[in-house]
Design goal:
With about 290 residues, the protein is mainly alpha-helical. The chain is built from 13 helices and no strands. Helices cover about 75% and strands about 0% of the residues.
Length: about 290
C-alpha cells in the first residue's frame, strides 16, 4: 500500500511538470481531489508533500503566458483549502516555503515575477484560512514557526535573501487585505515574531533594516489607520480562544519577556483598541 501511495505523488509530480498544458491542468484538478481524499484517510506526510510541491513548482515554471500564470497561481494557492483541517493546510504551506527556499536561486530573471506572484497568492490564501478559523493561536503559531524555520532564520546561509525580502515586502499587504481588524494584538505579535527575531539576530544589518521597514514600520502604519469595527464573536469561539490562551502560555515566552506584563488576551471589542494595544506593545518591545 505504501509503495502505491509513494508512486501516486511521483506520478502527480511528473504530470504537473509536463510540457503539455492540458496534462498539467488535468493534474491540478485531480490533485485537489487527491489531497482531500488522502487528508481524510491517514493524511499526507511531509515527504509526500515535498514530491507534490516539486511538481507544482515546475508546473509554474512551465507556464509562460502572464494571464495564465495569474490563473495558475490562484489554482495552486487554492489547494490550501483542499485540506479538512488547518493543520494539514499549514504543513502544506510549510513545505511550499521549504520548496521555494530550495529552488529560489535557480529561478532566472525572466521567470522570477511569476514565482513572486505565486508566493503572494499563497500568503493571501493562508491568511484567509486563518481568518476563517478566527485566527486561532495554535494555527498562527504553526505559520510563524514555518516561516521562521524555512525562510527567516538569520543563521541559515542557504536561505536566500531575495526570498526573505519578497516575503517581507508582501506580508503586511496581504495580511491587511484579509481582515486585520479582527485580530488581537497578541496574534499580530505572534505573526510578526519571525521577522522580529530576524531583525534582532541577523548578522546583515542592511537586510534587517529593510525587513524592519517593510514589515514592522508598515504594520504600525497600517494598524494606526484601521477603522474601528465591532469584532463580533460567538460565545463558542470565545470559549475556544480562552482554552487556547490557557494551554499555550509559552507563546508569550516566544515573543519575549518584555511584553509579558502587557499581555492582551484578544477580548477587545473594537479594532481601535486592538490597534492601540498593538502599537504600544510593539514599541515597548523595541
Amino acid at each position: 500500500m505504501e509503495g502505491s501511495e509513494m508512486s501516486a505523488e511521483v506520478h502527480f509530480a511528473q504530470k504537473l511538470a509536463s510540457n503539455e498544458k492540458k496534462i498539467r491542468d488535468r493534474a491540478i484538478k485531480r490533485l485537489r481531489k487527491y489531497l482531500f481524499a488522502r487528508a481524510n484517510h491517514g493524511g499526507l506526510s511531509e515527504n509526500d508533500m515535498i514530491k507534490i510541491w516539486k511538481g507544482l513548482h515546475y508546473c509554474m515554471w512551465m507556464q509562460d503566458k502572464p494571464l495564465l500564470q495569474e490563473e495558475l497561481s490562484g489554482k495552486i494557492a487554492s489547494l490550501l483549502h483542499s485540506f479538512p483541517s488547518p493543520e494539514g493546510a499549514l504543513l502544506f504551506m510549510q513545505v511550499f516555503l521549504e520548496t521555494e527556499a530550495r529552488e529560489w536561486n535557480g529561478i532566472d530573471k525572466l521567470r522570477l515575477d511569476k514565482f513572486m506572484m505565486m508566493i503572494r497568492e499563497m500568503f493571501h490564501q493562508v491568511f484567509s484560512l486563518l481568518s476563517e478559523s478566527e485566527w486561532q493561536v495554535s494555527e498562527c503559531k504553526l505559520l510563524a514557526q514555518a516561516l521562521a524555520l524555512k525562510v527567516m532564520s538569520p543563521w541559515e546561509a542557504r536561505l536566500p535573501d531575495g526570498l526573505k525580502l519578497h516575503i517581507a515586502d508582501i506580508y503586511v499587504d496581504e495580511l491587511s487585505k484579509v481582515s486585520l481588524y479582527k485580530m488581537s494584538s497578541r496574534k499580530m505579535m505572534l505573526l510578526l515574531q519571525p521577522f522580529i527575531s530576524f531583525i534582532i539576530s541577523s548578522p546583515k544589518p542592511e537586510l534587517a533594516k529593510r525587513v524592519m521597514s517593510e514589515v514592522i514600520v508598515k504594520m504600525l502604519n497600517t494598524v494606526s489607520t484601521v477603522k474601528p469595527q465591532p469584532a463580533a464573536k460567538s460565545k463558542q469561539a470565545s470559549r475556544g480562544e480562552d482554552r487556547e490562551d490557557t494551554a499555550d502560555s509559552e507563546t508569550e515566552q516566544d515573543i519575549g519577556s518584555k511584553e509579558e506584563s502587557m499581555d492582551i488576551d484578544g477580548s477587545s471589542e473594537e479594532s481601535s483598541e486592538n490597534s492601540h494595544s498593538f502599537v504600544v506593545k510593539l514599541i515597548f518591545y523595541f
